[in-house]
Amino acid sequence: MPLEAFSRISGCRSVASNVSVGFVDAEGLGDRDITYDSRLVSPVLLASKVVIFNWKDSLQADRILNLLAVLAKAAQNVELAEGETRKVFGHLHIIFRDWNFVNTSAAEVHDTLFKKEKGVSKEISNRNLARLELVEAFDSINIWLFPLPVSSTAQLSEKIRFEQLQPSFQSKLRDFRTRVSEQLQDPMLFNQQPLTGHTLAEMMPLFAESLNDNRVIMPESIYSSMRRAEGKKMQQTAEQ
User: Fold this and answer.
1) Do residues 54 and 173 both lie within one domain?
2) Any coiled-coil ranges, and where (predicted)?
């Protein structure tokens, strides 16, 4: 859907842009190991300007980081060109649903999740490594503490309209939509070039080929292959 239409839902400020946005549910089945899941999700992450991680439970840093480790591992499947310093993936939004811990800020939750732990155990070392890899992989990491959407849990079984949501939930949802819309204003880049639908269709088979051969994804190399294939196709068309 057009970003401009997406941005103004629920009465939010409209973002002027000719960008179109799509949505992908990348939830894994959990029946394979982290290496398989990370390779499976790598192309989706490379094509996504915004990644949303939903969490409907209390703040359990170990469990959350274990799940986010799939994203950290996915970054290892991508190799940027020499001298390129940009982040591999876009913006990560970690959403805590039904948050009812008063006097707790998003900044405090961010520190709990991403501040380096002290200790030498294997578990602590693995969590600290995941923290470092996530921070290095994403353009930004945003924490959202969403309250209960409605005052009565009985309403959750019904189809709820926006105006039926609690004011605090409405406000948080508007803030979230505005932030995401601002981040989506500029298209995702692939090898420093805007990622269009045409480019996406061309590069996915090359992503799959690299991953099936157990090779890392090299955006610069894949982009060059795409351009060579396009040039060859144009030449063949001209010779016909």
Assistant:
1) yes
2) none
Which domain covers residue 197, as residue numbers? 193-239
The Cα 240–Cα 238 span in angstroms is: 6
Domain count, the chain: 2
Torsion of CA 145, 150, 154, 155, to 10 degrees: -120
Asked if 38 and 113 sit in the same domain, the reply is yes
What pLDDT digit, counting tens, does each position of 50-72 carry? 999 999 888 898 899 988 888 88
Predicted TM-score (pTM) of this structure: 0.85
| Residue 16 included in any domain | no
Assess contact for 80 and 142: CB atoms under 8 A.
no
Q: Considering Cα of 21, then 23, then 26, then 27, what sign does the dihedral take?
A: positive
For 39, residues 6+ apart whose C-beta sits below 8 A from its C-beta are 74, 77, 211
